[in-house]
Amino acid sequence: MIEGFVALYIFMLAAFTGYEVISKVPVILHTPLMSGSNFIHGIVLVGTMVALGQSETGLQQLVGFVAVILAAGNAVGGYVVTERMLEMFKSSKGAK
Questions:
Q1: In angstroms, rounded to a whole number, what is the distance separating the alpha carbons of residues 49 and 60?
Q2: Burial class (CB in 10 A: 0-12, 13-18, 19+), 74
Q3: Count of domains observed in the chain
Q4: Is residue 64 domain-resident?
Q5: What function does the entry list (predicted)?
Q6: CA 33, 34, 39: angle at the middle one, nearest 5?
Q7: In this structure, are residues 61 and 52 in contact, taking their beta carbons and an 8 Å threshold?
Q8: Does the pTM exceed 0.90?
Q9: d(CA 8, CA 37)
Q10: Which residues lie below 8 Å from residue 78, measured CB to CB, with a gap of 6+?
């Protein structure tokens, strides 16, 4: 029972901290910061797969499966945004 409260407390603390950190970043820096933090998305994906592997009930498995899908989408989206951002900085061959 207490482990559940600790997990909820850690989740609430992480959500508050994440909100405070992101809200202080200027809008112009969001894309470079996102491209620089793609490794964090991979860590989140591995963590959700570990949590899914330790699930016992059907509800836990369902929530874990949704978390894996969302984390994978987040990781892929980060790499897509990075690729599009890097394309902006490539010079065009025909332009002088």
A1: 12
A2: middle
A3: 1
A4: yes
A5: The transhydrogenation between NADH and NADP is coupled to respiration and ATP hydrolysis and functions as a proton pump across the membrane.
A6: 105
A7: yes
A8: no
A9: 25
A10: 34, 35, 37, 38, 41
